[in-house]
Please model this.
Amino acid sequence: MPIDLAAVNWLYVIVLAILVFVSTWIGNVLSFHHRTMAAVLSAVLFAVLFVFWTYYPHGLPLPTTVTVQKAVVAPAAPPAAPAVPEKPRNPVTEIPTPAAPAR
Model:
């Protein structure tokens, strides 16, 4: 399945489904069962409720964004310098000096 269901914020989905249900029910009641008017009223009511829910600072501890909040991971510390210096991997340990130029 291409959707990772474990990553879905189910509380947010349920809250939005309840908002859609309430706005559809209110739109249907206000339009006296006229389908087109009910659809328009439902869309407007859902937009109002969604903006209120997402952007109004109501201070409720409920989800307000679609994105899943991930834990902030501190950057790894650089590795400490070894106590004993490592031997070079190059087998040549001495660098020959060039001979003095002839005069």
Q: What stands out?
A: Residues 17-54 form one domain. DSSP finds two helices and no strands in the chain. The mean pLDDT is 77.
